[in-house]
Amino acid sequence: MESAAIVATAAEHGCASLIVRGVSDDARETLPAELVAMMSDDGRLRSRGLLALAQPHVLGAALRLRRASREALARVANALGLLVA
């Protein structure tokens, strides 16, 4: 995915590279369509979709995603800390 492009570009420029990924979701999980629609193709939040958060199932999914993303980011930070220590 994105990692392949990063590694390829680094190799083209003679740079060593290492990818550390944090996984925040299970491949079997799906997000509510309303939550997906809130994000633009470039990952930015579309303000017009914020009212969808008034729906309990959308808000719950958003909060679970936030928690999982924060946990994944913390694992990445920990791994990077071990690599540079």
Q: Describe it for me?
A:
It is a single chain. The chain has one domain (2-84). The two termini are 28 Å apart. The protein is elongated, with a radius of gyration of 17 Å. By secondary structure, it is mainly α. The protein contains three helices and no strands. 53% of the residues lie in helices and 0% in strands.
Instruction: Please identify the structural class as seen in this structure.
Output: mainly alpha
Note the overall shape: elongated
Number of domains: 1
Task: Report how far apart the termini are.
Answer: 28 Å
Integer average pLDDT:
90
Strand content: under 5%
Oligomer: single chain
Largest sheet: none
Residue ranges: pLDDT <50 for 5 or more in a row? none
Radius of gyration (CA) equals: 17 Å
Helix content: 40-55%
Number of E strands: 0
Order of helices and strands: HHH
**Total helix count?**
3
